[in-house]
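Key result, reporting period 2: structure in, sequence out.
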């Protein structure tokens, strides 16, 4: 939580506090800072840009009445033992974009969102954690449903609450598996954006993955009024899904130009290079924009976690 005493707001304290925190994090080796904002302008002013989304879905339990033909039976499991769940979640992390590898604290927030453990059900491939029904609503605390069989088992479980609740709610991505299979009554109730602030552009680019089979390069210039190490001209070479970055002094080709917050959205793949260019946030020649488009395209980033 970030807060300034109400009597002292608007005097630059919040900005100073956050700037110091970002510099400390960078000095400690952090490459990105990620947060779920209560206010956008404050964080935009600190160099954060939109990194991805969290979708809030809901549906009546009857929307899960027709599960895939091959449905697994999900058995109760211990919600306080996250280690086996982390293993089940690994393939989702590898396929998707944006999901954090959870720390113990993040697992506690995911499986005990109100302080008490959720009810956990799993099979050898995946799991679903649900909260006790309240006010005729059933909240899914967390889910990992990587196969049709596990998904079918989870749908059967949710449908079984049709006498007790009117709606099932859950968080997920734009292509959430429960949302893909739900029938009548599915609703997207909300879509929140989370923010990213690159603390070390070169390290972030070298740790990121890139589209397999792509060999490409691009030159771009970043403006960052807080972290001067991020400023200047970067040359990125991509091959075999890896990126290699070098800072160049002499002008070989006209670089694309952007603020650090725009780079944040490009980096995660939340906004495409062409969309940012058309919005006037990314500047440069069209052929350089197209190279950035190829390098940073990928699965839409999303994350269900709150912290
Ligand atoms: C948000 C908060 C921490 C900002 O602290 P602050 O000391 O008042 O902010 P600052 O004076 O350092 O303002 C820095 C900049 O952010 C802007 N800003 C601050 N709060 C803002 C808000 N709520 N909405 C829009 N802009 C805001 C200021 O206008 C200023 O812009 P400038 O640099 O262009 O002049 C403080 O208002 C707060 O405690 N709010 C309630 C809790 C909250 O919302 N926290 C965010 C949790 S994610």
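The corresponding designed sequence is given below.
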């Amino acid at each position: 939580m970030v807060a300034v005493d109400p009597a002292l707001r608007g005097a630059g304290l919040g900005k100073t506090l956050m700037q110091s925190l970002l510099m400390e994090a960078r000095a400690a080796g952090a490459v990105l800072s990620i947060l779920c904002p209560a206010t956008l302008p404050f964080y935009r002013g600190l160099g954060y840009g939109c990194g991805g989304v969290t979708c809030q879905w809901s549906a009546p339990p009857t929307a899960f009445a027709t599960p895939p033909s091959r449905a697994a039976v999900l058995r109760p499991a211990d919600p306080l033992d996250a280690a086996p769940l982390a293993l089940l979640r690994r393939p989702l992390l590898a396929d998707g974009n944006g999901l954090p590898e959870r720390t113990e604290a993040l697992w506690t927030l995911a499986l005990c969102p109100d302080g008490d453990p959720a009810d956990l059900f799993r099979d050898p491939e995946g799991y679903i954690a649900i909260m006790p029904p309240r006010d005729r609503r059933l909240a899914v605390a967390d889910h990992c449903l990587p196969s049709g069989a596990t998904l079918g088992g989870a749908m059967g479980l949710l449908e079984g609450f049709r006498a007790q609740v009117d709606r099932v709610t859950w968080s997920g991505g734009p292509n959430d598996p429960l949302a893909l299979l739900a029938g009548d009554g599915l609703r997207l109730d909300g879509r929140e954006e989370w923010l990213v602030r690159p603390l070390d552009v070169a390290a972030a680019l070298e740790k990121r993955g890139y589209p397999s089979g792509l060999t490409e390069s691009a030159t771009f210039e970043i403006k960052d009024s807080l972290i001067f190490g991020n400023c200047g001209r970067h040359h990125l070479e991509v091959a075999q899904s890896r990126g290699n970055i070098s800072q160049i002094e002499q002008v070989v080709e006209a670089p694309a130009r952007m603020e650090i917050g725009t780079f944040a959205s490009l980096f995660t793949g939340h906004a495409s290079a062409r969309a940012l260019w058309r919005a006037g946030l990314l500047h440069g020649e069209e052929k350089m924009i197209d190279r950035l488009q190829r390098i940073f395209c990928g699965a839409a980033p999303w994350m269900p976690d709150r912290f």
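The pocket of coenzyme A is lined by residues 2-4, 9-15, 37-39, 41-42, 45 (CB under 6 Å). The chain has a mean pLDDT of 95. This case is discussed further under Risks and Mitigation.
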